[in-house]
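Work package 3, deliverable 3.1, input record:
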Amino acid sequence: KQEVTQIPAALSVPEGENLVLNCSFTDSAIYNLQWFRQDPGKGLTSLLLIQSSQREQTSGRLNASLDKSSGRSTLYIAASQPGDSATYLCAVSASNTGKQFYFGTGTSLTVIP
Amino acid sequence: GAVVSQHPSRVICKSGTSVKIECRSLDFQATTMFWYRQFPKKSLMLMATSNEGSKATYEQGVEKDKFLINHASLTLSTLTVTSAHPEDSSFYICSARAPVFGETQYFGPGTRLLVL
């Protein structure tokens, strides 16, 4: 069964810093990988979706990369802002089991003003 | 577009009662809906996958008689927690997918269930 791990579990940085969140998965046979943001007590907001054939995706200050062969993805956040404070989840969709997502354990990010 | 709603957003019930949670795709027809649960400070765990008009597929360890899922139309799926107990207290989130959107899933805002 696919297992998704995120490191670090929690991260606190001063405003303006660039930061990297890591995601690793055990089964490289994925269909795609997606990064989400979750605010406390709320649902999920999709940030970036990377197809298995792609290496990276960018949206504004966010850049996500995918190395399928090594089972890793990173989310790079440039010039962090207090509004970026949230929990970031990565999820991979399986290529052969209905394409549902398997979620990582999440990284709780706090950006200090 | 691509909005998914859940109702109720929050529910408190007594132990032993049943609770129904609705997941609706408001502006598209969802051929597949997924149900997840999330414990405090934990990630989402897939419970089941439901396709319109067919029986749901449950993940290993999820009791199908405990968590009844119905996907009777292309815009509505329901999750019924039967004979709820305090350990069922959790945050339940649904997502919906449609062929027109490819593999993108759209998530509902979640339902917080507290069983007393």
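Residues 15 and 81 of chain A are 5 Å apart (CA to CA).
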